Amino acid sequence: MTKKRWGLVLLAIVILAGWWKWSPAKAEPQIAVIHVEGVILGGRGQSGLWGENGGVDGIIRQLHEARDDDAVKAIILRINSPGGSATASQELGEEILKVRAGGKPVVSSMGDIAASGGYWLAACTERIYANPSTITGSIGVYMPYANWEELYQKIGIRNERIQSGPHKDILSPDRAMTATEKALLQAMVNDMYEQFVTVVSEGRKLPPEQVRLLADGRIYTGRQALASGLVDEMGNLYDAIDGTVDKLGLAERPMIREMGQTSPWDAIFGRTTVSSLVQQAVWQALGTAPKAAPVLAPMALPAAY
After folding, report:
1. Which one of 31, 108, 197, 297 is separated from 239 by 20 to 30 angstroms, measured CA to CA?
2. Phi-psi sector, 233: left (phi>0), alpha (psi -120 to 50), beta
3. Is-catalytic flag, 164?
4. Is 104 labeled as catalytic in the residue annotation?
5. Catalytic residue from among 81, 89, 108, 116
6. Is the overall model pTM greater than 0.90, yes or no?
7. Over 80: is that where the pLDDT of 141 sits?
């Protein structure tokens, strides 16, 4: 059999594996683990044969699936994110609060980093675990802007525009911002910042004045965040699971259920380098490879670093 045929056979196996879904027994108690990884963006993101790379819509679907399953007794939000879109963080945070209001506990476990929008999500959960060296905090909002006017002049670029109003080209990089425009944007940032402060104040049960002292955009280690009241306990994902089990008062340790779409490659070979090697083999046999998706940064972000 030629390499190309072998590749097609492997491809067919992977596609069939992606259609098959194992469902655990409903009667067995479970704790669902939902991963929030990378930049937090709104929308559906992208999913396909090679896995899923997406926005908060997919995470919200996982949250709802865990909410609606009576076998799931609690949800662990495993956060490894530097932040992202303020609106996307807010959408997901509101859904976390709704799940909690329905009676199902939601707990956060911070990985390497859970800052800015990542901390926004954590603040919406009822208990936060962090490693002593986790990078967290960065409570604040920023709006990036670059002025390339002098560079454009040096290389002979002159932009012309026809616009409906004086502020339609606000944040344009080919001219300086006016004082009026700065005031408009500062008001927007201040409004989003106050919303962030409210989320942290209500979630952590801290006075807004105290939150503002902590929310100047700086980052904290997990141990510093614990001392400041921004997290509840030092520990990793498994400490968060054990603590949740103890709080639920379950007689036996429940099954841990990983939520979200798994790449068919990982379903067959596991999350190992073997999976990557098989992918490369099939790509070579077919003479193709998946194209990288463009990364688009939103205009207004909770401060990511």
Report:
1. 197
2. beta
3. no
4. no
5. 116
6. no
7. yes
